[in-house]
Specification:
The structure is a homohexamer of 229-residue chains. Chain A is an all-alpha fold and 229 residues long. Helix content of chain A is 47%, strand content 3%. Chain A contains seven helices and two strands.
């Protein structure tokens, strides 16, 4: 069951309205690395998890991402201000001026509608955890980009908070991964010598890895003579 | 802030696994009239509502729709069972067998990914309430269709519960609409005689409304001579 | 059968080209509450309607929405002018400058492609009529937003005309709804006490409805103890 | 202005209901080469055409494609029959059983929602006509595929009619192309020797064209030494 | 097998960074008539072609389109420069500033994500070749539009090169079409008199074609009395 | 520059046609964890990489994923066989029977069109590498699911090969990550105490991590009293 508390997870305020920045911030409400995506991915993955401790972590974080979504939307709302002039936002989508009445929307900064294509769910815990670790890192990167685009100190404080929370989630997902890393798709599934080959298909340039090749370089690494099953 | 309680809003169980029906039920998880759509529409609309009572209703219902989503997903999960054979579901999407490991997904029954294009947000309270009244009615219709497709008594009980709840939400949104119906887009916005014309553009057949025409029929109702501004 | 008459439903002209406003007006050609959506929704719903009078209303309005679409596109075309400079439109999509040669497109103001996800069809007349009433209200709201963004008197006249026509359609759909409101999904479908409960899931704040609770308040309204089926 | 005549462009009937084939036929209602796509493409292209004769052809055909859409939808409706059992259609989308109440929908045979991404509009008449010639050919191919999947003689008659009409449209677009082929993007736009080179990038195999190379083969056709501007 | 050569197919450089034009050029990386679309369409069509010569042409061109995609992306990358300020691009999508770190993306100029809905594959060689001839023409038109929007001489040289190459591909596809034009969907498939009718559904205006009507005008060309099967 | 070699990267054959399995295998041609997605993600990310060794790895792998895509498509083509009966595939999309003439398509197993929403590109190397490690793991999981659904020994050999290659790519991306892990978004970006808090938002259940809390548990972990900036 989900419940809502009207107190925000952390205070949100802005120095002054800034419709252009409001549009940019939409990226983390309805974009591919935004809060809605994170919430949906973790809720959805949790549906089939059996390990109660890990299920708890996923749902703790999912509820928090929902709460972040609410914070970001609150900031967009304040930044949108009360001026319904479409040309007040000089870059990005103008949908909030002519479609939603300055209401935050489930789109990214360019007006692309949120899609479940952003959500990765495989039913395999190692794969899902790796997806989440990567997703948190991407969310952090976007917040760093957004941080550079504004001087409003309160908005920056909010971004700092959210960025730190993504870091915390990253840590939590990594800890979960440590615990289950020998299960599911990470179990040996009949890896053979093909997993140790290196195909040099882009030339010039020859990647020299150490772990991949092992002590003895593979006898075959020529794409001209591909392996025959 | 959103919080999660591991107790479901209402108990969910199934008589036996039924992968074909699991696929059908996906319609109310990730389809256009499903629970995710309802939750997202009401949360999103609430962001800019100023009237605290009405904002409360929207968020009460939004949190409940999130909880319904969890119930529907739980039922899908149980109906999917443990047989990973893709051909066990004879109609509908097979994604849960080859992509998500039997995990519920954010798609409709045919595998179409959920999109924010389903969500209607205008920033105008009368319009948003009318959208919600219509949305609840459509959700009810889909649950009626789904009810006919299964005999599992527990699944039917869950559908009965959800259907009744949509009815309750419908009632609540109608009450809100009564309160605010003379505000926003419902205020007179300079309606002129064009709002009382009837264009008979599909022939044969001539709609005779009473309220539209008023006591005096409009002098013009002929599409051959359209109105000149 | 559909036929086309080269005379527009109502005259369309503009004071002067205005590529920025042309982009905004795209919202009502290819956006979620635009004319194409309305036309498609009503045509599609009409396919299975048996009541000849109501089928007639749907098709009268659908043909008119097609005719509105033509008017909006004609206005966009005039507003686009003849200057192929992409930077002449300072906000919104630039697709018409680099992709369509200043031709109106089936996208919204931000360039999002029109999708049938905007169209609601349930095969149930009460639900479809409620969808249409809500859709007309949303269309009206968007025209009000667009009206504020331009001073061109001819464009404003066109918007006034279209806005009044949405009002007329709204009236017609409401009249239809009166006639069939006890059919389809509006028939009593075994509503039980769950339809009269109120779950207070967002706190603080406690919605107090009158119609919902009835003379005797429900004995259960505590989400901590959800109903057991 | 668009008008609707309740008489179909050509009679539509079926020998008996066939929900599986109804699903297949959805391909030509809401698929990429279906009737809605054709209608939308020609209407949209016509908005900016100045040549009145060619504009007339586009709109004659567009209105006919709208009328075909109505015929295809009528056939789907009859084939869907009255049995709301989702498993009665053994392949393809089940949306019409659980979402639309057996109403035809704006999707293809797999339930993918129609999108304006199918529509090609460039504002350049030679390019648009070539797009239309190709679109008519693809529509014909899909009708040929669909013809093979059913024995119902009335459905086959309808397909024969539609297929012949695509052929007629193809002829009409080709005639238009003859008339304007030296305009727009077909005018010489500074073609240089790069337009006569042949890059043999897939090996082995060496395409030997006659028109391309001319009497003297180009001195350069080696991708190892790409042209330097 | 695909291989990559780090040398570009043709040199790409720019006079100076130009983030606004970088956004416009995205149209030919991830738009409907861009290089990715062309590459994907020809690769995909080639999978079932049996004629080895024609398969070779499709794959030669597909590999070249992949190489064009790389050139366009390289130009976008240079035009994006190193200034991460979102407002430096005054029109079009701002995603590259806040989402991709100035990396080229698989979107069009308005940020619409690339979709396989752009790709036409029918398994019928005449239809596929006509699709490709039209696609090359549209690509040429977009390059002409883009050429007008910039003065950077190196970017113009690149566009000239690409435009000439589309012309070459057009020629090659036309030659292929000559060779196979009596096969597949171009074989006589039982065309009857319906293919020679002309329905005058848009009035006023009466298209007079010569080839279509033949020496004797069809006895039926009145939409009021549609053909009865 | 990309080049194509008509020899496949590894031999592909099938014991016998199997249209149902052909549909399933579409998941790895045009699905979210399929070969096209992998190829596009790595090509796109490579555009802005400066480190030549890492750029080489990305392009080696990208070219190989293109080659895998060709292998998967070849297998689908053989499995589709020559029977154009739409009902021969009993589950999954029927598009290949009625739209593409048994040609492989850029869709997943349910007919959902491939979308660039699947592609993650951030311009930040640590984030992109984590995305790729996760993507390879998900691809491996889907191949494991697909392996279970078929007995055809040659198809299983192909899946074994591809699965092993994803494992190799995973190893290569991990090695790259080791080398650059202290750069970009992984540099300390002003992490504060908020990164070490744990919000217990789903109850009951209390995740106890070790690394997150450190030697001293955070003084705050109560969502009732959220942090104040």
């Amino acid at each position: 069951m989900f419940k809502h508390d009207k107190q925000l997870l952390a205070e949100v305020k802005v120095e002054r309205p800034n419709p252009t920045y409001a549009t940019m911030l939409q990226e983390q409400l309805g974009g591919p690395h935004g809060e809605l995506k994170a919430a949906m991915q973790y809720i959805c993955q949790s549906f089939r998890i059996k390990n109660p401790e890990i299920k708890d972590v996923f749902l703790d974080i999912a509820a928090e991402e929902m709460s972040h979504m609410e914070m970001v939307a609150t900031a967009i709302n304040l930044l949108n201000g009360h001026d319904p002039t479409a040309t007040s936002a000089t870059v990005g989508s103008i949908e909030s001026h002519i479609l939603s009445g300055l209401n935050p929307m489930l789109t990214n900064a360019s007006g692309e509608l949120w899609t479940a294509a952003y959500v990765n769910v495989t039913g395999d815990l190692p794969a899902d955890l790796l997806s989440n670790i990567a997703a948190e890192q991407r969310a952090k990167v976007v917040y760093e980009y957004l941080h550079r685009q504004i001087n409003d100190k309160y908005v920056r404080q909010m971004i700092d908070f959210l960025l730190n929370r993504e870091e915390a989630h990253n840590t939590m997902f990594r800890e979960c991964f440590q615990k289950i890393q020998d299960t599911g798709s990470n179990r040996d599934w009949g890896i053979d010598q093909n997993a140790r080959l290196y195909f040099d298909l882009s030339t010039p340039g020859n990647y020299v890895g150490t772990q991949l090749h092992g002590p003895t370089p593979p006898s075959f690494n020529n794409p001209q003579n591909p392996p025959q099953q």
